[in-house]
Amino acid sequence: MYLTPQRILLAGATGLTGEHLLDRLLNEPTVARVLAPTRKPLAAHPRLENPVGPLQSLLDQLNGPVDTAFCCLGSTLKQAGTQEAFRAIDFDLVLAFARRARELGARHLLVISSLGASPDSPIFYCRVKGEMEAALEAQDWPQLTIARPSQLLGPRLELRLSERIAAPLSQLLPGKYHGIEACTLARALWRLALEEGDGVRIVESDELRKLGK
């Protein structure tokens, strides 16, 4: 458990989970600074630093030191348009962000992956997520926490008809397949950030729901 103020780096602060996590971080007395690069400006806060622009172009401009990094980046094939564009975000950009976070001194990286992530998955989405996890493990982080949520529940700005149809069904599924609210995932990520440890920890969705209660 951290006893001194933390310095946080957050990617994906405008996303469904990221916005909940940012709100929590800014209301935590143990957090001294949140560095959250975004494409559009965030509401001002005395402990928030918000570089604005495409993340890839901002990475070299980010300044430390950083204690903990959260990666809430994530797209969908529909949003990205092509498999190549999806991979550029959910693999390449995630790895570039992680490398920069390590350069700035972060010891603990927490990243949102996906239920079913595996480099051997026949499903492209899950395969890219699994390859991303493996590549992050190869970066040899002192502490790496991989969250694998099931379907994320919560209001989105963009219309995702398939998700609106699937969301009620996901809440009927058992165990790790049960849908998880984005605010619950954000609370779980913060609790996991407070746990000191070494090596890699993979947290499935059912455990995330328990941690986020």
From TrEMBL:
<dbReference type="GO" id="GO:0016020">
    <property type="term" value="C:membrane"/>
</dbReference>
<dbReference type="Pfam" id="PF01370">
    <property type="entry name" value="Epimerase"/>
</dbReference>
<dbReference type="InterPro" id="IPR036291">
    <property type="entry name" value="NAD(P)-bd_dom_sf"/>
</dbReference>
<dbReference type="InterPro" id="IPR001509">
    <property type="entry name" value="Epimerase_deHydtase"/>
</dbReference>
<protein>
    <submittedName>
        <fullName>Nucleoside-diphosphate sugar epimerase</fullName>
    </submittedName>
</protein>
<feature type="domain" description="NAD-dependent epimerase/dehydratase">
    <location>
        <begin position="8"/>
        <end position="99"/>
    </location>
</feature>
<keyword id="KW-0472">Membrane</keyword>
